[in-house]
Amino acid sequence: MIKTEIVEIDCVDIDQGKITHCGEVIRRGGTVVFPTETVYGLGANALDPAATAKIFEAKGRPDDNPLIVHVSGVGDVLPLVEEIPQKAKMAMEAFWPGPLTIILKKTSAVPYIITAGLDTVAVRYPSHPIAEALIKASGVPIAAPSGNISGKPSPTKASHVIKDMDGRVDVIIAGGDCQVGLESTVIDMTTETPTILRPGGITLEELEEVLGEVEMDPSLMTGEFQEAPRSPGMKYTHYSPRAEVVVFAGPSQSVVKAIQNRTVELLAEGKEVGIICSQETEGQYHKGIIKALGSRSNMKAIAAKLFATLREFDETNADVILAEAFEEVQMGKAIMNRLIKAAGYKIYRV
Ligand code: TXA
Ligand code: MG
Fold first, then answer.
1. Of 194, 140, 156, whose CA–CA distance to 27 is shortest?
2. Burial (Cβ within 10 Å: 0-12, 13-18, ≥19) of residue 227
3. Can you tell me the distance from the alpha carbon of 344 to that of 245, in angstroms, rounded to the nearest whole number?
4. Which atom of ligand 1 is nearest to the CA of 43?
5. Averaged pLDDT for residues 198-218
6. Are 38 and 184 contacting, i.e. CB atoms less than 8 angstroms apart?
7. Those residues with Cβ within 8 angstroms of residue 28's Cβ, 6 or more apart along the chain or in another chain
8. Which of 260, 263, 269, 332 is nearest to 295 (CA)?
9. Which 3 state secondary structure label does DSSP give 248?
10. Confidence of residue 56 (pLDDT cuts 50, 70, 90)
11. Which of 117, 107, 110, 108 lies closest to 70, judged by CA?
12. Other CB atoms closer than 10 Å to residue 290's CB: what's the count?
C-alpha cells in the first residue's frame, strides 16, 4: 500500500500551487491520477521506464498492452515520433486538443515499456484544463492509461478513481466529472489510409470530413481477430461491472419485450436484474433495477453516462444487467464497442 494524497482542484479556477506540486510528483518518478475530458488517467513520466512500470503495477495491467503518451502541444510530439505525415498534421489541427489519439512511428526517446515493444507510439493532447496544466507543470510527456483497475469500467468521476486507486498511487487529483465519459478515438496514421483501432470521443464521420477515407478495424465490433490485433488493448475483456451484462439488439419494441421476458425468467430463478435502457423506453419496464442513460436523440449524453451507470450497478445486488443496444452511428459506435465488451460479446439479436 502506498499513502495516496488526494488533491482537490477546481477545473474552472485552477490552483497553480497544487498543479505545480502534482507536476513535481510526476517529474520525481511518481504516479498521479488526473481528469481528462474523456476519462480519468493514471499518469507517470513517459520518458522514465521505472516510473511507467508503476502504472502497470497499480492497474494490474498486462505488460503487452501499450500506453498513450499525453502532451500539451503539437511541439511536444516532435521528439517522440519519426515523422508527422500530412494527414496526421491535419487531424492534429482539427481535433487537438481533444479526444483523439494518434499512432505514429516512435523514436528511441520513447521507452519500449510504454509501447509494449511496438515501434509505434500513441500520442494525445487532451483538452481538459487540469490535464493540460499538469503536463505543462511536469515538463515531460505523461504516459497514462485510464485510471481504473484493469478490466473495470473506466473512471469518469473522482469517486471512481478513489475507489480503484486509493493506496496504489502517489496522488489522485479530484477534479470533477469527465465530460465525454468514454475514451479517445485511437487512429493509426502509420498507414496510407488512416484506420480507427478504437472508436471514441471523435466520431468516424467527423474524421472522414477532415481526412477523407478512414477505415474501421474490422475486428472492432466482433471481437474476432484474424491475426494478432493491431491494437493490443482490443483483445482484453474490459469495462466489466460485477454483474454479467447481456445486450439486446433489434427493433425497439422487440427489444423491450425480450428484456421484459428475460427479466421475469431471471427473477424466477432468484436472480437480481438490472436494466440499462433509454429515456424513450424507461416507462415500459416495471421490474428490476432500471437505469436510463438518456434520450437516443442525444448520443453524447448517453456516452457520458455509460461507465458511471455500469459502476452504479456494482453498488446494487444486480446479478445480471440486461442492456438495450444503441444505433451504431456517430457516438453510437463507441457506445456499442464499450457495451459489447462489457458484455463479453454476449449480444442477442431479437
Ligand atoms: O481517452 C483516453 O484515451 C484515456 C485518457 C486517460 O487519455 N486513456 C486511455 O488509455 O483510454 P488506455 O490505456 O486505457 O487505452 C489505450 C488504448 C489501448 O487499447 C492500447 O492497446 C492502445 O490504446 N494503444 C496504445 N498504444 C498503441 C500503439 N502503439 N499501437 C496500437 N494501439 C495502441
Ligand atoms: Mg483503459
1. 140
2. exposed
3. 8
4. 6
5. 96
6. yes
7. none
8. 332
9. strand
10. very high
11. 110
12. 17
300 contacts 225 by C-beta, under 8 angstroms: no
Contacts (Cβ under 8 Å, ≥6 apart) of 297: none
Residue with cell 484544463: 129
Instruction: Please report, as a single letter, which amino acid is at residue 96.
Output: W
Any idea what the Cα angle at residue 343 is, between residues 341 and 345, rounded to 5°?
Answer: 65
Gap from CA of 87 to ligand 2 centroid (Å): 26
How close is the Cα of 271 to the center of ligand 1, in Å?
36
Which chain residues have CB less than 5 Å from ligand 2, an ion? 146
Cell of 235: 483483445
Tens-digit pLDDT profile for residues 87-137 = 999 999 999 999 999 999 999 999 999 999 999 999 999 999 999 999 999
Residue owning the nearest CA to atom 21 of ligand 1: 233
pTM of the model: 0.95
DSSP 47-76: T-HHHHHHHHHHHT--TTS--EEE-SSGGG
Nearest residue by C-alpha to atom 32 in ligand 1: 231
CA distance 222 to 218: 8
The DSSP letter of residue 206 is H
Q: Is the separation of the CB atoms in 246 and 263 below 8 Å?
A: no
For 95, half-sphere exposure in the C-beta direction (CA atoms, 13 angstrom radius) is 29
DSSP secondary structure letter of residue 191: S
How many Cα atoms within 13 Å fall on the side-chain side of residue 45?
Answer: 19
Distance CA 123, CA 103 (A): 6
d(CA 64, CA 49): 14
Cα 219 to middle of ligand 2, angstroms: 18
Residue type, 55: I
Q: Which of 128, 131, 106 is nearest to 116 (CA)?
A: 106
Closest CA to 275 of 320, 339, 242: 320
